[in-house]
Amino acid sequence: MSKRAEDLLTRMVGIPSVSGNEDALARFLVDEMREWGFETHLDEAGNAIGQRGDTDAPMILLTGHMDTVPGGPAPRRDGDLLYGRGAVDAKGPLAAMICAAAEASVDGVRYVVAGVVEEETYGKGATHLAECFRPAVAFVGEPNGWAGVGIGYKGRVMLRYSVSRPSVHTASPEEKASEAAVGFWQDVVSYCASVTTSEKAFERPIATLNEMTGDIESARLVISVRTPPGFDLPAFEEFLGGVTRDGVLKIDDRTPGVRVDHRGAAVRALCAGIRARGARPTLKLKTGTADLNIVEPVWGVPMAVYGPGDSALDHTDDEHISFTEYAAATDVLRDALNHLAVELRQ
């Protein structure tokens, strides 16, 4: 891998970009991608957009998110490893996309690379991207390891529940607000268990109690439910309406789960590149949620999720990426783009 490619990722990791505060990194990428041969701009959502190739040719779009969660280790290099928040999730995958699209042939094809905002929250950048572009093939940058290809991500339903009860003595038999909240949580868990017989994490809804506050007079819960593709959200909402116990329920997010066709052009091209380097591709179904969930239902084109890094390090204090793996992923992705360019010309 070139020193220039290593420097790109190193500088990206060195620029803080907590979700909602990506402007400094976005402006850096607009300037940097221009030096790599792209026409660039910041769009209305704050996404950094780079384009190269014939604007009338079929488009291959590569999108990765710029934002990170807070915290993480201080940016530093230790031999082959680069530490820092975002090294894995997901500046490494985004940097690989920039390098690969800069090196790939533009004969009869157009590449668009998008560094998007607010993936870690509610997908503002991807939502805007879905409205503005219509690619022929697309890739989403997330860490799956250089020999891994993501083909499915679970959806997410965010519940905010609050309930109040009159002030009573703790010895009173009347239901307290804290008890009503616990009852609601237990109902959500029981429902998730009742709607699937699968033991596979990807195929069953899983509820997490993110926040819990309150006492006998008022209580509040924040619950996230990770849902598989095909999850019956209307039926779930109907169920929730019957178990609120006179509380107030607000649903903040209704992101559906998605699974792409593993026989599609994007997956096949990546797998060919991985095999060419002596490895066996691993198709991955992830229990988290990504920008794939937002753009795939809109675009309906061959897609895959790809990028270097160990996703087990996402959001941890030990987040780091190997430059060797970053180089391998860049090569695989560049070759996949070249393969698709030929396929799209035919």
Description of the structure:
It is a single chain. The protein has about 350 residues and is of the alpha/beta class. The model has no long low-confidence stretch (mean pLDDT about 95). It contains nine helices and 16 strands. It has helices spanning about 5-15, 25-35, 85-105, 125-130, 175-195, 235-240, 265-275, 290-300, 325-345, and strands spanning about 40, 50-55, 60-65, 75-80, 80-85, 110-115, 135-140, 150-155, 155-165, 205-215, 220-225, 250-255, 260, 280-285, 305, 320. The chain folds into two domains: about 5-155 and about 255-345, Aminopeptidase; about 155-255, Alpha-Beta Plaits (2-Layer Sandwich), CATH 3.30.70.360. The strands form four sheets. A six-stranded mixed beta sheet has the order 1-2-6-3-7-15, with helices on both faces. It has a four-stranded antiparallel beta sheet with strand order 10-11-9-12, with helices on one face. A three-stranded antiparallel beta sheet has the order 4-5-16.
What is the multimeric organization of the chains shown? single chain
Largest sheet: 6 strands, mixed
As for the number of domains, it is 2
Task: Give the C-level CATH assignment of the largest domain.
Answer: Alpha Beta
The backbone outline, from C-alpha atoms, is elongated
CATH superfamily of the largest domain: Zn peptidases
Distance between the termini: 31 Å
CATH topology of the largest domain, by name, is Aminopeptidase
CATH-scheme architecture of the largest domain: 3-Layer(aba) Sandwich
Residue-averaged pLDDT, rounded? 96
Number of helices: 9
